[in-house]
């Protein structure tokens, strides 16, 4: 992943935000210099002198008007430019290209209207984009530094974010809301493509998740990827932060329930319970509380398919 630097801003939002930032920093710098110079001048002009009789200083109506009026005007101009930049981000053109975003620990998923699903955001250049975003577990926050945009992604609520990318290239996407153990690894990218390249990609045949596991059907592979299972569970026996699905069914495991160790045999009933109530029991040797409750992420049909996929990996 990399950022594209140019004299032109990566997006129209970035241009608006940068203009406001430059204005605020410039005003603050001028005020700092003005106040510092005035302070030094007063130190020398009014320092204590022998034989000098002090005189009371009375109010000056014009001075009071100036030091109230000028800061008020400056603050109002900052608000105005900031509000105009905010409108740039929140005004959604009627022809905006919509992409649905699903956030989960610790993965971004982008769903296109033609059925494509990717973990990288692909968009055409100079086209208004509308992201409709929802989390299936904890709070996340989609942040694209190069575009100067960030929006919270919350379970049970759809938030939206709009932008128009002006330069082709690849830009970082990060999660800006602490969301658990692997929060710092919740990175992906947005790839801005020329119109013809994007159209070619968009209309190409849908790709399935890249995996060498042949025991699981393509449909099940897609579902495991879509629901975020492969973020924490491997399909080939390799170790991740949760037990691998490979060879899981029928094996004996030691689990912790209410602090007590229990020996269990993994069957469909156990899998169903551990998926829907992941905090009831924890496999010994793994961290408790990492897996979110799947109540809003899986329906009964999807749950059955996932259990069947795990069973096929024996």
Top-tier CATH class of the largest domain: Mainly Beta
First-residue to last-residue Cα separation: 37 Å
Number of helices: 7
Which CATH-level-2 architecture of the largest domain? Sandwich
Name the average pLDDT. 82
**What strand line-up does the widest sheet have?**
3-2-1-5-8
Largest sheet: 5 strands, mixed
CATH superfamily of the largest domain: Cupredoxins -  blue copper proteins
At the fold tier of CATH, the topology name of the largest domain is Immunoglobulin-like
Number of strands: 13
What's the short version?
The protein has 314 residues and is an alpha+beta fold. It has helices at residues 12-45, 61-90, 195-203, 218-226, 229-232, 268-276, 300-312; strands spanning 97-104, 107-112, 117-118, 121-124, 128-135, 140-144, 149-153, 159-164, 169-175, 187-193, 252-257, 260-265, 282-283.
Please characterize this protein's 3D structure.
Helices cover about 35% and strands about 25% of the residues. The chain is of the alpha+beta class. It has 2 domains: about 1-205, Immunoglobulin-like (Sandwich); about 220-310, Cytochrome Bc1 Complex, Chain D, domain 2, CATH 1.10.760. Strands 3-2-1-5-8 form a 5-stranded mixed β-sheet. A 5-stranded mixed β-sheet has the order 4-10-9-6-7. A 3-stranded antiparallel β-sheet has the order 12-11-13, with no helix packed on it. The relative contact order is 0.12.
